[in-house]
Amino acid sequence: MLSSLSHAEKLLCPKVLSQGEGNWPISESTFTEAAAKEALNKLQIYISLNAPPVDTVIIDNELLMVRGYILKARAGEGLVGSKDDFCRFIKESAYLQH
Question: What is the count of structural domains for the chain?
């Protein structure tokens, strides 16, 4: 079980700046337990209703929120290599898809 951490107080990674139109980095502070739970709830609805969204990017964005929170929580717990994993995720993967 992931502990409830207060990640809003300090940033773990350097800020990633937008490279222009179509490139919208997701800020580190967005990856919260509440956001991950909301994303999981949406995914559960898609599964239970057997009605996935027409646009699979919606699913990708929900999974991104869950993954980001898990990586951030691990980094906050100080697990070896976890901060590097989270910062690599922020730099390479944490972009809003549309």
Answer: 1
